[in-house]
Amino acid sequence: MFRALSGLSHEVKQYLLVTFNYWNFTLTDGALRMLVVLHFHQLGYSPLAIASLFLFYEIFGVVTNLVGGYLGARLGLNRTMNLGLTLQVVALAMLAVPASVLSVPYVMAAQALSGIAKDLNKMSAKSSIKMLVPKGQTGALYKWVAILTGSKNALKGVGFFLGGVLLMGLGFQGAMVAMATVLLLVLGLSLAWLGKDLGKAKNKPKFSELFSKSRNINLLSAARLFLFGARDVWFVIALPITLGSTFGWSHSAVGGFLALWVIGYGLVQGLAPRLTGTARGVIPDGAAALNWAGILALVTAAVALGVQLDWQPQFTLVFGLMVFGAVFAINSSLHSFLIVHYAGEDGVSLDVGFYYMANAMGRLIGTVLSGWVFQVAGLAACLWIALAFLVLTTLISLGLPRGAHPNEGEQHGV
Question: What is the pLDDT of residue 140?
């Protein structure tokens, strides 16, 4: 195996290391989310209280993507990626304390660090692909982005399952210690081998250039905000609690099902280039994003109607979630490709960071609404809000360019 690795190009080796970092981080991120939801539900916290535990995680994700893109362009993506790994270790260590210390403000503070860490890591990983794929190879760029994004989400699903297993086997504190130890080892490898100037802009960006001046990136970012808000408004809090409280599923069953869902979601993301026509030489554009957003809205309408009418609710929810996940995965993969494709060559992390700021804002809105709306009006209301968000995503996607992208390769701020 080492002989095979030594024969790879520098760019491929760096891509593999970035992916390895991202994979390990994602496992702990998925496990931590499931551990917090299940552990604090077990302690008797209300859905809204559990949602509040993730409030700072999402808020700081919004800020981190914006500022992190600036830091990545000035300091290099290797430093922002390693900083993300370090902060996640600190967040896990903060939670590895006696249960009596785990007050809501304390857990929110730890989650804030984890949110910063996650978005530094994600922004760094996805921005780096633009630098590692030879310029002009758009099909290869889509393939590499899809593999990174799909594998990450598949492993996040494994992380959900891992969180349930660790909670049962090691307890909450033991799980935190185990995950922090693994990430420390990953951090050591990254510090030793990740390229020192990866993603550093030739022309140092000014702080005033944080906000994108590209119409295409602004539109795509707005569409992404509502896309992810539509998912999280029913997936983060409402869905796992419904499966456990209404249908009587055990913690391990909830964790296992959501794990399989996210794994399948990630696999579909990895296959998205084939499903959207790249194998036939078709490079997706704004029309593809529009069409798939419309399909997802129709799927969500059908699930919302089934739940509202109480028609075979368990079957409707489980089957509907599977179809929703597959179509959502294609939407997400398309968006992930388009942002890297639209982003300027120099200081790519500025554009990618701005875009993922919108992603984090959508997750924040979805998470808060998931706890509040579910507590006040139930799961069906969460699904109708998801539908409204997807209608907005579809309408915004009307403005995305078709065919050749007029600002392809534009420099940020020009």
Answer: 63
